[in-house]
Amino acid sequence: MLSKNPVFRVALRGETLLTSPRWNKGTAFTNKERKELGLTGRLPHRVNTLDEQCQRAYDQLQMHENAIRKNTFLQSMKDQNWVLYYSLISRHLRELVPIIYTPTEAEAISNYSHLFRRSEGLYLTISDQGTMEEDLLEQTKGRNLDLIVCSDAEAILGIGDQGVGGIGISAAKSVIYTLIGGIDPHKSLPVVLDVGTDNEQLLSDSLYVGWPHKRVRGKEYDEFIDKFVGLVRKHFPNSLLHFEDFGVKNAHSILQRYRDVHSVFNDDIQGTGAVTLACTMAAIGVTKSKLSDQRFVIYGAGSAGLGIAVQLRDAMVSTDNVSEEEANRKFYLLDKQGLIKQSLPDIREDLKPFVRPDEEWDSVARNSSSEGGIGLLDVVKHIKPTVLIGCSTHGGAFTKEVVQSMAEGCERPIIFPLSNPSNLVEVDPRDANEWTEGKALLATGSPFPPAKMPNGKDYIIAECNNALIYPGLGFGSMISESRRMTDTMIIAGARRLAALSPALKDPDAALLPDFGDAPEVNFEVGVAVAEQAIEEGVASVKWKKEEVRDRARERVWKPVYGEYVFDENGQK
Predict the structure, then answer these.
(1) Is 173 among the residues known to form the active site?
(2) Domain 101-262 in CATH: superfamily?
(3) Which of 25, 70, 85, 101 is an active site residue?
């Protein structure tokens, strides 16, 4: 579905055609198509345009009074007609993405077994792994996959372990890739890796549809993941394998294990890191400084916080020509125990590059008002950070004293309270704006209304939303058929997003483009990623860099109806 009026040869007729979400047009089938495809009498008389269908569907959607019912309605539409589903959402992007994705999808996932109507994607259960290859091939027969999104559902959207309900997040991510990244939905596959669940509520629920077993860990788990990745590499060697909402320990180890053998991506780590890097690049463009000039405090050292630190560190090494060791020293990470320093017990292996030496903090520890560790205010007062990032889900952690102490040490403090949902944000951006007298450069993880500047002008709060970059990162990897998703490809994408910042033209404008422009923004990101893949020799396509933009346009899937011609040997 690439041109305005593409022609498709299809092998489906009658009821089978009407029940195929890929090919169904509903009332938009022309009279000629109805006669040729056995649809006369199966549809009412009038032929509708896609515009008319979207209006009808939107009116029906508005009849549902709450978000979860709207989510269910849209899910039903996706099961019936892909073009109508994607066309409707693309016309109401800002309004409907929160319905089909976060935050509403979290509620749908938590009630998955009770809302279950029909299957979607591929369910791979560790107890049935003997038929894993057979199941994968049966589900993907006749399909050349570009994208596979998988989750083991241990850490879903802030609601934790959801067992087999994780298929919902894999499916939602796949939808965003299509909606914003232009990926053909027929070439993507959502997968849940059902390794059990430690959610006692699910285990005791007689209607739970997943494997009712405690979550498998250790060697057995690793072998299951390895078998799955091996099948992806064997049958879809040029695909992007996207890992989503794995627990923090597994997320990092899996990414490290496979990143050099296949094109893999973890949005919780790399996507969050990439969009925060882009936002930081835009902010330092305003302050006319460099990444290596910054002092970073990251409050929250889980997958997101560590992913942000690593992405910023790697970009600093790449762009400012400093050593990794020197770059690591620019970061101060805190978790529930306070500042992560050498004397803390049980420090995760992946955090060790950012551990601060104890002797650096002896005097601060003696005067600290925090119990048991060095707290956020202690760190801010001591190092005067230029960048303060929150991914802690500790609502209100960036107090007035913290923000004002930071502002004393820099002209334009860069403050990103990124925790979701909005009630868990570290500071309301309007408060941070007021406490810094309009000097702060702000971005949040959830949408917030504008803040008032001292001159009365509205300051638009940038939404540091992964969806502004990860579909483009994936699109660039897919169209270039890259053998790996390299750090420099991600940095290239982040740099292109940062270059689109409104703040670079007006320092009091938003740091990132509006979410309503996400499809166009991600196209630009995708072009930059593919160009970088070609430049560093990891792309399998034989294009020149100058060809990438035109080639990319040819690959963008658009939700438009084509003309159908019946052919027994055509597509199904």
Answers:
(1) yes
(2) Malic enzyme, N-terminal domain (3.40.50.10380)
(3) 101
